[in-house]
Amino acid sequence: MSAASAPPPAGSAGLRLVGLTALVMVAFAANSVLNRMALEGGAGASSFALIRLISGAALLGLLVSLRGEARALRPTRAVWPGVATLTLYILGFSFAYRTLPAGIGALILFGGVQITMFAGAVLAREPLPPLRILGATIAFAGLAWLMGPGAERPDPLGAALMLAAALGWGLFSLIGRKRGAPLQTMSASFLWSVPLGALAFAFWPDATNLRGVILAVIAGAVTSGLGYALWYTVLPQLRAATAAVVQLTVPIIAMAGGMLFLAEPLTLRFVLSALLVLGGVALSLRAR
User: CB 263: neighbour CB atoms within 10 A?
Assistant: First the structure.
């Protein structure tokens, strides 16, 4: 679904679009905060991931069925690459937040996704303007510096798991872009990722509690399911560059949420790394 030819909205319609876009960005950032809140409250990573998958599959499946497109949920061969990459994202995301703060996790995820998308463009031999290469290099340097030696370095295992999640989400996005019909692709992928989530839970069983269940359902059905559905509703009304740039706010919102709800500290290393990563991504987007 492209937004490249969307005319700029005006008046009250424009304000409504701004409000809906801001709501989507808050929903995306809330996934990080909800996951951290659940794990700090005693829930397990694999149980949180499984409940999130089930809740997201139920909500997205309902939306697709109401549109009369239930046939898109069938387990065709084309679905499985999306299932594998979405599962990698969900599991890596959940397990990474056992040790990572919300803002740092979101920054690693966002930067890793952009680098994965850049690598996909290189492998596909897409034209790469010098400005885009420079931007990707700066973003990568920001992530490397964030995870380099030092007192404020994030947990290495947590960072590696979040980079695995970023690889999963980046590949899932590339697969979805080729397939089209993003809402149907997302719904089918969530649905058939549930058995893989259950298998992961069987290998790494953990306990949960009522707080963890509620937060996982919110993360799956609301901030993931409804968040993705709303995003694909507003996306056609945004210019392509605008749609990409607004996502730069997600790590910052997640950081603010972590500070507000989890009393997470704001470190100088995070601030400078965020400036490099987000600045590099913004520079890369100017080249598109």
Answer: 7
